[in-house]
Amino acid sequence: MTFIFQKELSHIKNFLRLYASNRYIYLRKYIKSNKKSKIRLLDVGCGVHSPKVIEALFSTKVEYYGIDKIDIKDSLDKKYSRMRFIKIDLEKELEILDKKLKNNFFDFIMMNHVIEHLENGLEVVSVLCKKLKEGGGFYIEYPGVRSLSLPSMKGTLNFCDDPTHKRIYSIQEIGNVLLKNNFRIIKAGVVRNPLMISLIPFRLIESIFYNYSKASIFWDLFGFAEFIYAIKKNNSYKHN
């Protein structure tokens, strides 16, 4: 009975992610607008959780590539064997990554809450820009300057709650890197999803039931994160 309940809850959560989680919203829209049967997705700083969500939501639509500083493949079962992973330290081995990844290869790149852990985040973004095809989408999300003024909470509500956070980035500086690399900024701003905010009471109950950190539940309410979404222009594109 408990297994069935957990399975149903997992299905509900995955469905909600399609409409409440910003990065999956933009990925879903990109897939929908793309005529290809499958797109190549690069998930930067993927961790163990993100591949599982992608498999559940987009398994038939995505050829998945993940990057992380730890060995992800050993932490996943055979169900995820077709996914490809690269173990690399983006601060120490960026040149190696540049050589490993083909230019103009990926259709969509996600960099979700990764750049704030890097001193060289802008250089990483610049390298990744080359790896995206013309017409490809680039989604970046990170704690905004507003997070410095939020109260401290276990699980990170204030930027400084996480000792691995190294740098505050801004829409302006990330946007300028993207513009320099021939991207068109589609949308940028504070992450505030009304559906995510409306689900706060239910997520609080879930966090108590499963005993996990509550901080991220309030991110959308308090405007903890910023995001920027851009499309790589064709070389023939001319701005009027």
UniProtKB/TrEMBL annotation:
SUPFAM superfamilies: S-adenosyl-L-methionine-dependent methyltransferases
InterPro entries noted in UniProt: SAM-dependent_MTases_sf
Leader sequence residues: none
Alphabetically ordered keywords of this record: Methyltransferase, Transferase
Superkingdom field: Archaea
One Pfam family recorded for the sequence: Methyltransf_23
GO molecular function annotation: methyltransferase activity
Gene Ontology biological process terms, A to Z: methylation
Entry protein name: SAM-dependent methyltransferase
